[in-house]
Amino acid sequence: MKITLLGTGSPIPDSSRAGPATLVETSDAKLLVDAGRGLLMRLNAAGVVPPFLNGVLVTHLHSDHITDLNDVITTHWVMCPGPVTLHLYGPPGLQEVVNGILAMLGPDIRYRMDHHDDLKWKPQLEVHEVSPGDSFEAGTTVVKVGQTNHRPVEPTIAFRVEADGKSAVLGGDGVPCDGLDEICADADAYVQTVLREDFVKMVPNPRFQEILDYHSTVEQAAQTAKRAGVKTLVLTHYIPMLMPGAEDEWRAIAAAHFDGPIVLGDDLTTVEL
Ligand SMILES: [Zn+2]
Ligand SMILES: [Zn+2]
Fold first, then answer.
1. Residues identified as active-site
2. What is the DSSP letter of 149?
3. d(Cα 47, Cα 32) in Å, to the nearest integer?
């Protein structure tokens, strides 16, 4: 199993980091988790184009995690030589979001179908709204759905991908909770979006301070990893942005709470399990 951090950024614009998006590749599936800003450029750099995707998994409907879902849908549609279904998995509400995206893309879909005689179908999408306890498959790869706590944003979920004797959890956004501990139990890798509490507290702006309410700090992500018996901790979605050369400082904060390998870095950082 291979995990590629396609986008390690957050809602804060950063010229060197795409928005939240992670690719998980197993022996028989390629799964995209979340669809943040600029992800298709990073997906391309990872050698993958949308027609190769067996599923798009959405942890929650915050804009930074879905802003380029329209790009995935359109590019999958126009690059597939025939009517191929793109499967989208996410919490209840995903269908409403996809309906809105298709409404936004209405003129574009008309232009392309009018222009290209061989394009006789609209984007072929199947939306699967899933909840904690559900699971689904892509080939021999099994994906389990877990509960997260990103309140007041609800519903939000984590995914656990199991294949080839390995497991990886994509925790999405949120603070530690029992559901997250459960889905992370003994996982080979746990990917968590994080913030630096010390830096956030320096910004005297209520709207910025409030992001502390519903994001794991680096310390909390490490504590979850330790409690759950995770083997490798992977940090992403850095708030504020991870500055060049600061990787060891962030890693040391996590290492005070977790003994295993800690991975973080630029877009396209990979972890092989
Ligand atoms: Zn969020
Ligand atoms: Zn986010």
1. 64
2. B
3. 13
CA distance 22 to 107: 30
User: Closest-lying ligand to the alpha carbon of 175?
Assistant: 1
Cβ distance 58 to 73 under 8 Å?
Answer: no
Query: What is the phi/psi pair of residue 85, to 5°?
Result: -80, 130
Q: Would strands 262-263 and 2-7 be described as parallel, antiparallel, or unpaired?
A: unpaired
Yes or no: say if 146 and 132 are a contact pair by the CB < 8 Å rule.
yes
* Pairwise CA distance, residues 188 & 81, whole Å: 37
Residue 123 CA to ligand 2 centre (angstroms) = 27
pTM for this model (two decimals): 0.97
Q: Which residues contact 133 (CB under 8 A, 6 or more apart)?
A: 145
What homologous superfamily is domain 2-272 in, according to CATH? Ribonuclease Z/Hydroxyacylglutathione hydrolase-like (3.60.15.10)
Helix (H, G, I), strand (E, B) or coil at 31: strand
Distance 112 CA to ligand 2 centre (A): 33
Give tens-digit pLDDT for 129-164. Answer: 999 999 999 999 999 999 999 999 999 999 999 999
Dist. CA 174 → ligand 2 center (Å): 9
At 237-249, the pLDDT tens digits run: 999 999 999 999 9
**Rounded distance from Cα 62 to ligand 2 centre (Å):** 7
Segments making up each domain of the chain, as ranges: 2-272
Ligand with an atom nearest the CA of residue 91:
1
Average pLDDT of the segment spanning 178-199: 97
